[in-house]
Amino acid sequence: MQELTIYESLGERELFIKKSPQELTPADIGVEAVRVVLDETRTFQEMDGFGASFTDSAAFLMNQILNEEQQAEVMQRLFDPNEGIGLSVVRNPMGASDYAREMYSYDDLPQGETDPALNRFSIAHDEQDIIPLLRQAVKWNPELKLMASPWSAPGWMKTSGSMIGGELKREYYEAYAEYFVRYIQAYAENGLQIYAVTPQNEPLFVPGHYPGMLMLPEVQSEFIKDFLKPAFRRNGISTKILCYDHNWDKPEYPLTVLNQAEEEVDGVAWHWYGGQASAQSEVSRAFPAKEVHFTEGSGGEWIPAFEPAFSNVFRTGIEILRNHSKSFVLWNMALDENNGPVVPGFGRSTCRGIVTVNQQTRELTYTLDYYALAHFSKIIRPKAVRIHSDSSVDHIRSVAFKNTDDSIAVVLFNDGEGVENVSLRLRGEAELSFSMAPKSAISIKAAF
Fold first, then answer.
1. What integer pLDDT is reported at residue 312 of this predicted model?
2. Into which CATH architecture does domain 3-45+386-447 fall?
3. pLDDT digits (tens, 9 = 90+) for 426-440
4. Can you give the residue ranges of the Glycosyl hydrolase family 30 TIM-barrel domain (predicted)?
């Protein structure tokens, strides 16, 4: 080995600390070590990267509440691969989500009016905060990939006549496909390429107090196959189409869509609010040519204490990657001291952002999600290929990648209740031995 780069987290007061090999806790002599072995001949998915979302709320906080110096600091720490953690995927709502200051789409009309030709389509709302921040992010990291998902079609396209509730009216399938085309084209005019879209965020969940829209799998299949993909082809759009965009507990949904619209779908997007990450592999085995993406997972007060929350991001993140995902994207890039702003009528929010921007004091703080993402994103870079890793005990969780510069990146998490000696075989005879405290994490990049 020519060089080792190591980051370690030992608890709330020691998060993502850069260390030399000599600064790691040495293994206890005479105590058997857990062996972690890598196999570079067994390869899996290529990574797009790690990230979060510039919701309306997050973009407002970062663009309007922070001063210029704070904004420059946080953008660098989020997106710069050298001085920051190099986030490389952003997945944004198309219009309002639950984390927005108002209800809005890109074609809002007075009650009773319709606009099937989309004459009043406009992304002016995004031009205030979201687009300026995305442009900055791309400057910090030119490899950044942008994904987009609507929480709802414009209200006039729906059976409810509102962005809340209802389904897409069949007579507006064509207009809704054109809505995606206009969005992608408008962002391109602002110098931003949309890498992938999903037809609907969480299509099986219809909230009663913020934007949402029921889209059953048969409807999604028809919409993609007969309307969305043809509209992309007509307009020379290469943006990928990912189906589903919901929890692990309903793998039958993406399986239905892929069975009915396989040629028009590029992959499946997943969330973590139900089920197990193994669902990703279940669908991938049935359709191995289709990409796997993890597009939303939020931490929050339902796991309030530091250790359980930090551990959850780690164990789940490792499982997401071990189950073939090309991306690992958390939720809000920023929230305020009250876990907001949220749409009117939402009630109390319990979600946690990657950073917290206090609207009263204007203080900027980095949450445990930032440091957990850092362990992955800092060393596993875009186009890295996952390689096989195997641990001799289940509670030493591992995931490993080979970067394009031939370096090896390994993330380890001790999910046990006791201290463990670990012996990591990197390449050939190169081996690293150290001790891991319970619920601690280590990220190692080895250059040869």
1. 97
2. Sandwich (2.60)
3. 998 889 999 999 999
4. 48-380
